[in-house]
């Protein structure tokens, strides 16, 4: 008897989770469409929506839309402010903080230069998040969701290692909040989650590698629809794959890592050593300045360097993981169409015969800056996913 009760509770929960997922995906919809998309009985959908309306997860919107048999259909709209989170993008040079909304969008509220010591960083972070917390009603607050430019133990919410900043085995939970959840993930994994959620072209795909190019390079790996993290959470650290035994020294202590050739820092260093003056207050901005000037002849060697250096790593990813698609993100999501074509050409001329040599490399559809930065969006989605069972 008890088991039967538990079963029906679980079914009810999974139905509610499914309907909420569809609402969050479609933003504006109708009960009828939700029933069709979920395969649930219309009366079940009506009951669930009644609960959601009471809980404030969605609103009814009066509308002139009519369904097929001429009745007025009442539209439902997701309440994007039903639950809020504080999202943090820890960048090697700059950290941004904003609000994450229930539809997975974000807004950036403040930014600061990332201090290199963890103690100083947490101090500034707590000050900045405290200001934002004052404006969020407590009953709507989901917690803190943080994007980390390094390895993360997702279960323990522990930063395992950030090579660029030298942080090892540190927790943000203790200083940030004892009361609310603090969830963390790697920036490339979060970007992949965001891309998968927002890009309809990826909807049917399960094997995806998201290459996040910033001051370093991190990769989000999805295999069979699941993020692959590895035993010690270092699975996506393809930026530290050795591509030249005696190459430049890397932050990780090794030399000749892929990111010492293809990260924004590496490309900017190359530009500056040839005497080019670049606009921007950090390496990512300077990298974008190079891309903006791609048609000028004095920049062409840098565009070629970007194409070749990214292609080297992507060939190795394809030969190791054989994904359905490679998504270029971070600052590399802005590379010009022509450069992307040439890069894809290099990749396909070098990958193994078995891959069919028709690998698709595409740019992330999410901008790298401001409101729609991929890892921030991923952070907003991540905490909703982790907490969804608490409010359905
Ligand atoms: Zn390295």
UniProtKB/TrEMBL annotation:
Short name of any one Pfam family annotated for the protein: HTH_24
UniProt keyword terms in alphabetical order: Kinase, Transferase
SUPFAM superfamilies: Actin-like ATPase domain, Winged helix' DNA-binding domain
Superkingdom of origin organism: Bacteria
GO molecular function, one term: kinase activity
Family statement: Belongs to the ROK (NagC/XylR) family.
The protein's name in its UniProt record: Transcriptional regulator/sugar kinase
Organism: Mesotoga infera
Phylogenetic lineage: Bacteria, Thermotogati, Thermotogota, Thermotogae, Kosmotogales
